[in-house]
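A quick word before the example. In earlier lectures we treated sequence and structure as two separate objects. From today on, think of them as two lines of the same record. Here is Nuclear pore complex protein written that way.
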Amino acid sequence: MFSTDTTLHTFQSGRNNPRRRHRTSDEDHTGTSGQVPAKRRKRSSISVNTFDPPITKLNGIPLASNTAGTIGRVREETPELGQTQDSIQNGVTEKLANLAVRNRSTRSSRQGKAIRHDEGVLLAKTDRYQVAKETNIPDEVQDVIRAKGAFCYELTKVMANLLVDPWQARFNEELGQVVLTTENKAVVWRYAQGNTTEALRVAVIKFQNAAAPKPKDPLPLGILSKAAGELALLVIKAGGRVTYWESVASAANADILRQKQNGLHGSAHGLLSGEHVIDLEEAESDAFILTTNAGRVLHLSVRDSQGKPVVTTELMRNNSSISSGVLGSLRNVFSLSGFRKDIAAVKCIASKTKGHRKCLIITKRGIIQVWDLARQSNKTLEIEVDAKPLILKTTEPMNEPAGDLQILDVVLPTSKKQRPDVCNLLFLVVVQVSSKWSYFLLDVTLQQEILQVNLVYPLGVWNQAPDDSKSKPRLLVPDPGHTALIMFDDAIVVASLTSTQQGPDAQLQNENDPKADAFQDVLYLAKDRDFHLLGCAVEPAAQSGVASALVFISEYGLAHITINKHKDAENVQDRKANQCKAKIEQVVFFADTPNKLFDFPRAMSVDDWTSEEVERATLSINNSILDCSSSYVPTATPSMDHQLKDRSTHLKALARFVSRWDLPAATRWTLLWSAEKMVAARAVWQVYTTHLAKREEQKVPFRGRNTVLLWEALDAVNERNKHEINPEKGENDIVRQFLTRDVTRMELLVAWAAKGIEEMANDNVTNAIQHAWLISQASDIVKAALDTAFKFREYNAAFYGFAPELFEDGIYKGSYKELPEVWTSCRESCLTVPDLARYAQEVAISLSNSESSDEEGPELDESDLIKLVEDAVSLARLSCQIFEEGYLYQSRDESLRARSDAFKAATQNQRRELLVCLVDLMVPDEGLKLAEKHRDLLSLAEIACRSKAFILERLDDGMDEERRNMEKKLQEYETKIDKYFRDYGMNWAQAFYSQLMSRESISGVLKTGGQSLSDYLSRNPSLTKAKWMYDVGSEQAYLGAVHDLLRCNADEPNLWNKKVQLSLAKLSLLAAEEQGQTTGDTVMKQMRHADRRLTTIEIQDDVYNYIQPHLRSALDQYASVDLALETFGKNVKKTEMQAAVFKESIEKLVTRRWIGEENLINVLTLIYCPPEIVDDAQFTAHRFFFALQTLRDSPKYEDAACTSLLQKIIWRRAIIQDDWTSINVTELKSDDEVAREAESTALFKTLLAGFHDGLLETDLPPPQNLESLLGAGITPDDLRQITRWANTDDITLTATASDYAAEDVKLQEMLEKGRLGLWWQGIISAAKSELERRLNGESETDTNSAKTSNKENTKVNGTGINGHITEDEEETTVDENQLSKTLVDSQGDVVMG
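And the structure line, produced from the sequence above:
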């Protein structure tokens, strides 16, 4: 900076004072006075205690032996920044000769300089940029960074005495140096190391007279420069006090008393009261540009016109506008030319004139001035341009007409070559429209007085209002210039300077949707830590296409930012998706780190992204964490447990952040299940490490090696279901590989852990004790995975947006509709886990029953057996949980009801087996707990009954002490059973008594008594007989017994049993009347009901008696059915459906089973009666009347539609039974002949018997006209009124209706050709007359016929026993007293009446 001569003179004159008193002999070590020997060192005040112990490590990294100890708070030597003190004492020339000083760096040499950074702590990372905290920082710098705030005052602050930062930093990018200034010292650190491997160098310069600062005093400002090969430092303190050191090294090694001699001191003259310097800019090697808080710009030089060191300042103003005189001087002071407000930036560039420099001064309001700076002449304003109109016009397409404008900062992009006549600038501009603020980056070219805006980059990610109380925003464009960094006080904006679209339309689109085109992002500093930026600088490009910058942050340290040139996706939607994913990844992987610097959630507003965009990004990130495909998740790590824990943390952070959006339930379930799998994987890993430790103790040889189950199980998983290891990449651990890449398939791990025993058992593992060890491993794995998952799900349900009350033991009780299959109860788990539980129970029972093992191998001690039993219980519990959850999922849709019911039935049986088996393991209480939890009353009843039976058995065989214990235990079980009756009511009674009846006799069960037993018996139709016995024997409830017997009779298939039940019902009814349990009217009503049922049974017996004599030649029942069909089924041979029904009825008839009222009517009306068969009982003549009587006594009689249809079918079949066409031919026939033919028809006999019985007078009157019989049953809808056809398909009903339609055709023929419609009323009158004649005995000539007729009438008029046809040939009368007597008919049936 200064010439050698001048510098030498300055320093020598300051040190060699001719009036200085020489040392005395006492002060001289050698005893020689007057001079100091040339080679004698001056005594130093530094001792060995001054130094810290030698440093052998830096930030945990060992230092080389030649560098250890070179870093400390006080340094004896700094070979590059300074020399020893004797070199200073011996003269500046010697000092300069010994200094290792770099040549002045040029821009071309700086481009090749490599900046050495350690890995540091990663703070943020995307595919575009990453931010890391520098940890390789010297202790001296760390001390400054960790310093606490002090009180100071600035004009920009609203209030005085505010807590501000105690230091500030200023970088010299070309030199790779930074100076940190505090109230009492300056620390210079060379952060750029080039390619050297030397330790970092630091120089500490303490200020003289560093008294406590006043609250109003600002911090000193420092700036580094290069002069005469030395690193120089200029410091400006409060009040404009200036100190300049031409050599930082010398100043750092000298003590405070000698710094005054080494440095240049002065003041910045011309500052007003309260005015202080806020910014410095190096203009040339010995000159600087100062910017004050009053908006003025000063030129400061450290050398006068003769080259002597002196501090001079000059206010930069336009001399052409200066006025003379006193008033003119005052006006000049306060004029715009000398008192400029709101300076945005000051930049110095080269000039085409040798010895000159150009200075650009840009105000916030858009005024650009270009000054010519000459070393020894005045500073001249060359150009002044108002850029505001052009900027507003350029930004108008993206806004309404703009109002206010501010230029916040300006940079000279180094990526663009600057020429003296053409200046390339990048402006940071904010434009206000109403209350909205819009930020832009403007690529501007200034040539002479012509200003041109080349490109406009809207900053859509930042719209906050400018805040003058905060530090000024700084704009950085690191090489190679593809990205800009905007440093706000509490945020960093990253903006790409490469746009995929150009022109006004593109700019308008970018303004409407800033995410649609060029990449932009914002990083907010953490608010809770009160971070803000104190200094920043660009770095030379160390790699092609990679930009780099450094940022000092208060109370934090130094952050290193690197930006890659990344090619965005061409599709707008893809770019938005990538940005959305990147922002969420920042939150997930860096928001909760211990060294957190940024507030990532703040950078992603809910309104900026739709739920669909967030959902897609969330699922992608979730999957990348699960399979470790994310670049943020390491795949190789020394601690697998730590890696799994970190991945769980990331998944939790992901779910917490995206909960701000309304994501679908399926997505939230996916996140929950992923988190479950991760914590389950970690639990499995911990179990695996435990098994590895026990591998040598529990030797299980498998394929020639001692192994563990999990390794073998995963080895057996098919390659299609897992990522195969690649030995060429160093992958050799199956377990680590699966837990790293295949956590999403945790269900396979669970399944194969359970199934792996079978795989290993097929090899050399045959010892039961070895099987126990394998079962123990499998159980540990299954429990670790499923128990952890279920507990995690229940405890974290609310965190994932689900109602906690819908979860019980980790099982979701809500709707599973539209959800994928739950991994904890998938098909593989439902198959393998219960199998493992059964296998564990079998082995445990086997080992507990055997006293010792004769097989080779380790013996199983008691603790191992206890663990095996505990494992069996745990596996049974997990199986129950899996079954319940699986059923809930299977029943998610009503259309899957059949499938879910089948699943429930299958799993209920398996669950019951597993729980009941716990009784054999001597842990019945565990089985009871599980059965209670899952409300499995069948299992609960069986366990209770088996346990009670076991206790009773031990009571008989045990000793006194054991008997007392068993009695106590029995009392506990009795109490539990009573509690179950109270808690579960009839459901428990059903299960308990069913189990009790399967184990004991019916009499033993009936002895227990109680209302529960009575209710149980009442609810089970199959136990109606037992209920009747209980009512009669224990309760004497005869009326209840009547109801039970009648209900039982309705479903009784056996004909004999039905008759007995009805007879017993009549006996019980009489007993109830005698005991006063009912009234006489009720008795008569119930008795009539029983009699009608008995009548119907007797009619079926009549049919059997009619066909039975002709079946005696049959060898067996099958032959009897075939013979009966051949003989009596001729009427239905041509009708397929009627033939099938007829056959079914005959089969039941032959085997003495109840065929039902409708089928009995069908048989009576369709049976073929061969004329050769002798019918002594007149069955053939009265079968249609029997059909009508059966219809009247049928329960379906109350159904009017069904009764009407069946009645029409009976009359139609009765009519077509005879040939009325022939009867209608009366030619050459007398009235007697015609009458005999008519009276011989089935129709006439039916009318006669019906009128005689009274059936046709009251209950079922004959049709008024026969045409109404047409169409009965010829459609499927008609047939569905009959019980048999109610639920039959249309095809079958159509075929059946065609059979009825054939009957309709025959009837139609009778009506047309036989004129039956005309005969009908006459036949009815004739039947009534014949009945009256027979009853009154008017015909003397037909006395014998009348007697015969009277016999017939006796059989059908209901006056016989029970109203059915008797086999007695003599006329029998029964009075009303017979109702109270018990008779036995000819077949041995008990008959009341």
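Notice the following. The CA atoms of residues 28 and 241 lie 39 Å apart. We will return to this example when we discuss secondary structure assignment.
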